[in-house]
Amino acid sequence: MTDVQEVRDPELPGRLLALERDALIPLLRARPDADFALPTAACPGWSVRDVLAHCSAALTRVVESRFEKGVFSPESNDRDIAERAEWSNARVVDELERGMTEAGPVIARAGGVLDMIALGEWVHAGDVREVFGAPGAYAGAGLPDALTLLVRITREKEHLPLHADLDDVDEPLRLGAAVAGGPPARYIGDAPTLVRLYAGRPVNGSGYELAGAREGELNIFG
Q1: 62 near 23, Cβ under 8 Å?
Q2: H helices, E strands: number in the chain
Q3: b vs e for 64-100, b when ≥16 Cβ sit within 10 Å of the residue's Cβ?
Q4: Residue 68 phi/psi, 5° resolution?
Q5: What is the pLDDT of residues 180-197, one digit of tens each?
Q6: Residues sharing a CB contact under 8 Å with residue 107, sequence separation 6 or more, in sequence order
């Protein structure tokens, strides 16, 4: 079983953001304005535009080092979205592109405390792809880096131990805390579904096996 990159790669979060930027931004610029109003299943109550505004605001906060008390709480997220209510969709996408470009070096220097933001942004890009019916939701070129980040974050959080046998990855992954006093939970299935489970996203009837844990116990985003 592989222990994917125990040592933090400071460039990985920025690389993940850049890979997703290069795929997502052209997709967004090609969509009509009406598509930005579509609801998202992954984020109930939020439209595609709301998700993108949240993402662009979060990355702008990282770039500008604006982390006031309560930042990234539901209330803070709602305020960020409301502040962009009068913006055009194009302006939201422009801010998102800048954030995905400029946040990487800041996250790299932060020593790991901001790495989960990059993973969250990548997951939200999957949320948008899912709405559009576009390929690559919770997959695509960034998946290997996302899995590496997921493994390290679940280790650092001492999350529920899990052994994952992935259909589309050569080596099994060990996620979560070191096992003590019993076997880890076991997952068999594809990597995008594993990401969905850890992100608390709908699995849409995907075929997989999970033993020793309930779906909700894997969610790292709450």
Answers
A1: no
A2: 8, 4
A3: eeeeeeeebeeebbeebbeebeeeebeebbebbbebb
A4: -70, 170
A5: 678 999 999 999 999 999
A6: 10, 13, 14, 62, 114, 115, 117, 118
**The amino acid at 189:** G
pLDDT tens figures, 85-127:
999 999 999 999 999 999 999 999 999 999 999 999 999 999 9
Radius of gyration from C-alpha coordinates of the chain = 17
* Residue 102: closest CA among 149, 52, 60: 60
Strand bridging mode 185-189 / 162-166: parallel
Q: Which residue has the tokens 């539901």?
A: 74
184 conformational bin, left if phi > 0, alpha if psi -120 to 50, beta if neither: beta
Do 51 and 37 touch, CB atoms closer than 8 A?
no
Whether this prediction's pTM lies above 0.90 is answered by: yes
